[in-house]
Amino acid sequence: MGNRLIIFYFTIQSIGGSLYFCAPAYAYQDLGSGSYFIQIILAALFGGFFFLKQYWKKVKNFLARLLNRKEDPNDGNQ
Q1: How far apart are CA 47 and CA 41, in angstroms?
Q2: Residue 64 phi/psi, 5° resolution?
C-alpha cells in the first residue's frame, strides 16, 4: 500500500506542477467546440445507459448478492 501511495502523490504533484508552470496558449476556441463537448457528454451518458441495458441482469444479481438478497432465477426469463 505504501508504494501505491507514493506513486499517487508523485502523480498528483507532477500534474499540478505541469499545470502551474504551463504558458498561456493564446488559442482560438471555435464556436462549434461547445456543441462538440455536449456531444461527447451525451455520447458517454447514452453509452452508459446502453451498457446497463445490455448487462442489467448481471448488474442486478451482483447488487442482490451485495445486499444479501435472494434473486429469483425465473425473474426476467421470457
Answers
A1: 10
A2: -65, -40
Q: Give the structural domain span for 45.
A: 32-78
In a domain, residue 6? The reply is no
Does the predicted TM-score (pTM) go above 0.70?
no
CA distances from 78 to 28, 70, 74, 75 (A): 55, 20, 9, 9
For 25-34, how does the pLDDT look when each residue is reduced to its tens digit (9 = 90+)? 787 777 788 8
Interhelix angle 56-66/32-54, rounded to 10 degrees, is: 70
In a domain, 18, yes or no: no
The structural domain count of the chain equals 1
- Residue 41 domain-assigned? yes
- Asked if residue 45 belongs to a domain, the reply is yes
DSSP conformational letter for 8:
H
